[in-house]
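Tutorial sheet, problem 5. The two components below are modelled jointly, 440 residues in total.
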Amino acid sequence: MIPAHLRYHRAGDLTEALRLRREHGDLLRPLAGGQSLLPALKLRRDAVDTLLDLGRLTELSYVAARGDHLAIGALTRYHLLLADPLVARHAPILATAAASVGDPQVRHAGTVGGALAQADPAADLPTALVALAATAVLTSVDGARLVPVAELAVAPGVTVCRPDELLTEVRVPLPGPRRWSYRTFARPALEWSLVAVAVADGRVALAGMDRTIRRATAVETALAEGASATAAAAYADRDCEPADDVRGSADYRRHLSRVLVARALADAVEERR
Amino acid sequence: MTIDTRPGAATVTVTVTVNGRPQRREVPARTLLVHLIREELALTGATVGCDTSSCGACTVLLDGRSAKSCTLLAAQADGAEIGTVEGLADGDRLHPVQEAFREHHALQCGFCTPGMVLAAVSLLAEHPGPLTEQEVRHGLKGNLCRCTGYHNIVRAVLAVDAARHAG
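Model answer (C-alpha cells):
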C-alpha cells in the first residue's frame, strides 16, 4: 500500500512553517513523525494535498523547566521522554505513558505534538497530559494562544487548531503531581488502548470512553467529597458515551473504566516520586 | 491561468547514506522508505510484511535507531544515515547479533529476521544493560515472528548482552 499522489515540502524552520500555514492553510497538512498520519494515508482513510514536514524543526524538540511549568516541544519524540531527567523529576507519569505507546520503532519516530494534533480518543500521552492539566501552545504568525489540552480535541481527529496555526509546545504545571498513576488495558498485539486512565493528584483522565479524552468529573467530585477510592471508581463511566464496536462493546468499556480507575486510584495513594 | 504558489513538489530528491554509501534518487513524494530501499537501491533485506506498522519486518536503522520503513516516507529520511541488514556483517564476519541468531537457532523461515536483528541492534545500542529477559521481550515488541520462534530470538539477544558484559 502506498499513499495516493501527494506533494511534499519540508519546512526549514518554524518561521517558514508558520508563514506557509498562513498563506496556504489547510492545503498543507503538518507531518510530524507520521506514525498515525502515514498509516491513515496508506489506507486512504485520509487524504492530503501537500504534506508540510515539520520533522526537522529541531528547535521544537526539547524539555525545559521554566519556573511554574515544564515545557515540552511539540517535535519531541516519545523515546526522549523515557529517559529525560526533568520528566523523571517533575512528571514521571509522562515517561510511563510514553512507554505505553506502540513499540520502540514507533517511539523513535512519533512526537508529542503529533499525538495531540491527531486527537485520537485512546492516545496514551494525551491522556496523561489531560490528567496533568497541561496546556497546549498554538502558534501562528500573529503570536501564540494557550488552550488546555482537555479542550484541544473536539472530535476524533479534530482539534481547535486553526488552519494558520501549529501546535508548538505543551506545558505541564509545576510542581508536578505528588500522586499519580497511569493504567491502560489493551489487546496485547500492539492494539491501541481500549480504555486508559491517568490519575494526577485529584484529577482523573479517561481515554477510550468518549469521542475525546475527558476528565472523569464524577469520580473527581466524589473523591473531593471524601469518598473512598473504591466508591469513587464506581462513577468512572458516569456521563461517558463509549464506542460500541468490533474491538469492544460499550458495556465492556464501561466495566473496564471502573476497574482501571479503582486500580489507578489505589496506585496513587502513596507518593510515587 | 492561475499560478500555483503551493510549496513543495510531487517529486522529491532523496539523498541518504545507506550502509555507509551515499545514494541519491529522485522519486515520487509518496514513495515509502521501504520501497526506496528495496526497489531503487535493490537492498531486499527489509521486507514488507503487514504493511501496517505492526510486524516490524521492514525495520531499518534511521540514524542508528530502529524505525519501520513502511511507515516513513523516503522524503522524511532525506539526509539520514540508514542501516540495513546488508550492512551489518564485516565481509565474511557476521555482526555479533547475526552470529548469536545463528548460534541460537533464532530464525526459522527468516522473513522477520532482518527486522528482528536490527531491532535487537537498536535495543542493545540504546540500553547499556545488562538486560533482563523481560526488557528484551519488551524491546522486541514491535517485531512479530509468525514461526513463533521468540524463545530462541530472546536467548540470542540475551547472549549478545551477556557477552559484551563479560568483555
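Marking note: The mean pLDDT of chain A is 95. Full credit if you identified this.
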